[in-house]
Amino acid sequence: MRNKILIGSVLIGLAAPSAAFAQASTATGAVGGAAIGAVVGGPVGAVVGGVAGATVGAAAEPPPEVRTYVMKERRASVRVEREVVVGEPLPPNVVLYEIPNNDAYEYTVVNDRRVIVEPKTRKVVYIVQ
Question: For the chain, what are the domain ranges?
Fold first, then answer.
């Protein structure tokens, strides 16, 4: 019985943080994973979920140098009708700007918010606060 709870906690702890990917970071991933793990598996689930959530959160967040570069750059904001959400692609009419020495991310400013995107899919990976 104890093994089933532990295995179930691990699986849900690993899956849940990626489902709740919105504006992930190490801290928010750990908290979210711990909360979901606690509901499913009690104290052991909270520990497993917290570790899994922190790992997913750290992997999802662009490196500090990318975030710093995006904050320093000045670009005109583009208006779009819908809300900009992490995980959703930007419309094709939104111009993306390259980040020097980094092919993994591009950025733009939409609705007065700086966003970091994955160039190939145009999906928002991070909204700079």
Answer: 2-60, 64-127
Please tell me the pTM assigned to this model.
0.57
CA quadruple 33, 37, 38, 39: dihedral sign: positive
More confidently predicted of 60 and 38 = 60
Report how far Cα 44 is from the mean position of its chain's Cα atoms. 25
- pLDDT classification of 17: cutoffs 50, 70, 90: very low
Return the axis-axis angle of helices 26-60 and 2-19, rounded to nearest 10°.
70
Residue 85: the pLDDT is 94
Of all helices (H) and strands (E), which one includes residue 14? helix 2-19
23: tokens are 């504006």
C-alpha span between 29 and 16 (Å, rounded): 10
Tell me how far CA of residue 25 lies from CA of 44, 64, 89, 122, in angstroms: 22, 12, 20, 20
| Residue 22, burial from CB neighbour count under 10 angstroms (0-12, 13-18, 19+) | middle
